[in-house]
Specification:
Layout: E1 2-8, E2 13-19, E3 24-32, E4 40-45, E5 51-54, H1 60-71, E6 85-92, E7 103-104, H2 107-114, H3 124-137, E8 143-147, H4 157-160, H5 166-172, H6 181-195, E9 203-209, E10 213-219, E11 222-226, H7 248-257, H8 261-270, H9 273-277, H10 285-293, H11 297-321, E12 326-330, H12 331-336, H13 338-345, H14 357-360, E13 367-368, E14 377-380, H15 385-397
Parallel strand pairs: 1-6, 6-8, 9-12, 12-14
Antiparallel strand pairs: 1-2, 2-3, 3-4, 4-5, 7-8, 9-10, 10-11, 13-14
Helix pairs in contact: 1-3, 6-15, 7-8, 10-11, 11-13
The protein binds adenosine-5'-diphosphate.
Length: 398
């Protein structure tokens, strides 16, 4: 069965068509600037050439229509008829406490997702627009919602509660939710395969280090803690997000800078992290790595702080699980940067880790980067959130 995976943002829409049987990618692409002048669709059949077409898209329904037309194009298309797309899997950012797993989309499910809009006001409404557009154009095709938060719903109370008045949890569900769940789930399952062990026999720490970054602790096949919180702002130092800070900093800066809470929060989301720490130099780790090698002071402090924070979370989660069998690195930085992996692992002598320098120099491949005598394994596992969504979708509709 072919599964169309949709990741819909407010003005963009990424898609992949995946054969659920072989797990092979059939085609993929991206619509950009939806509803804005200069919108364009990029489409690439697997193994074929990428095509970029600038064409008006007044809304997401227009965008999905163009996606379907591309997939069914006489010359470069990959399917002949709409019914060759067996199901659609939608990435949904926030499922709150309503969803602990993926689910087939019905009117009730849409209502329950809407109830979570307050928790992710930038993302959930856009995800819902994508669902509505697909339902309009493919009314007979089953659809599944796959949530970024669902994998983390197994966290115990002591991990998800904040130390604030309990009534805020009762009234507003203010608690830790965590994100990147499809990635943490995919990577931890792949880790078990790579180690040749049962998923439920392992203690794993997954470091998803991309522009957004989070760590999770997966014990016996269940997520028991994760670094992102009510929103993706908490946890690691990220590309542009601050990660953990003393919440009193917000009021302090509002007073000093005569700014509103909203303005400071926007800075914490968009101008902080490695971008902010490097004095505005870059949010891209590649640029910072180059500067670090040249000895630039701003890059040294930024990369050191980034790696230290990751190492601190690994220590915390090792304690939370009373041990760890393997640490997994994934996403743009985690998959590609041997430099940052080595920097983080330098803190982990107490876990008896010895890196294999040659294996660690590889990029973007699934590999164990430790020597045979290393007491704890360190794995690089390229994430594949789309495949994870396709698997979940297929499992529910087949
Ligand atoms: P997101 O999906 O959150 O936007 P990605 O997982 O694509 O992020 O990761 C993007 C980050 O990964 C960027 O900051 C980029 O610098 C970093 N990255 C990608 N390739 C490399 C590389 N070869 N070396 C170092 N960093 C890299």
């Amino acid at each position: 069965m072919n599964i169309l995976v949709i990741n819909c943002g407010s003005s963009s829409l990424k898609f992949q068509l995946i054969d659920a049987g072989t797990e092979k990618l059939i085609a993929k692409g991206l619509c950009e600037r939806i509803g804005i002048d200069g919108s364009q669709i990029t489409y690439a059949p697997a193994g074929g050439e990428k095509q970029v077409t600038i064409t008006p898209m007044k809304d997401h329904t227009d965008a999905i229509r163009l996606v379907l037309n591309s997939l069914m194009d006489e010359k470069t298309g990959v399917v002949k008829k709409l019914d060759e797309i067996g199901a659609v899997g939608h990435r949904i950012v926030h499922g709150g406490e309503n969803f602990a797993s993926s689910t087939v989309i019905t009117d009730e499910v849409i209502k329950a997702i809407e109830e979570c809009n307050d928790l992710a006001p930038l993302h959930n409404p856009a995800n819902l627009i994508g669902i509505a557009a697909c339902r309009e154009l493919m009314p007979e095709t089953p659809m599944v919602a796959v949530f970024d938060t669902a994998f983390h719903q197994t966290m115990p109370e002591e991990a998800y509660l904040y130390g604030i008045p309990y009534e805020y949890y009762e009234k507003y569900k203010v608690r830790r939710y965590g994100f990147h769940g499809t990635s943490h789930s995919y990577v931890s399952h792949q880790a078990a395969k790579l180690l040749g062990k049962g998923y439920e026999d392992l203690k794993l720490i997954v470091c998803h280090l991309g522009n957004g970054a989070s760590v999770s602790a997966v014990k016996k096949g269940k997520c028991v803690d994760t670094s992102m919180g009510l929103t993706p702002l908490e946890g690691l130092i990220m590309g542009t997000r601050s990660g953990d800070i003393d919440p009193a900093i917000v009021e302090f800066l509002c007073n000093k800078e005569q700014k509103s809470v909203g303005e400071i929060l926007s800075e914490l989301n968009k101008k902080s992290g490695v971008l902010g720490l490097s004095g505005g130099f870059s949010s891209d780790f590649r640029d910072l790595e180059d500067e670090f090698q040249k000895g630039s002071e701003f890059a040294v402090r930024t990369m050191n702080a980034f790696a230290y924070r990751v190492a601190k979370y690994i220590g915390a989660y090792t304690a939370a699980m009373n041990g760890v069998d393997a640490i997994c690195f994934t996403a743009g930085l985690g998959e590609n940067s041997g430099f940052i992996r080595e920097k983080i692992c330098a803190y982990l002598g107490y876990l008896g880790i010895t890196l294999d320098a040659e294996a660690n120099s590889k990029r973007g491949v699934e590999i164990d980067i430790t020597t045979p005598d290393s007491r704890t394994r360190v794995l690089v596992i390229p994430t594949n959130e789309e495949l994870s969504i396709a698997r979940e979708t297929y499992a529910l509709v087949k």
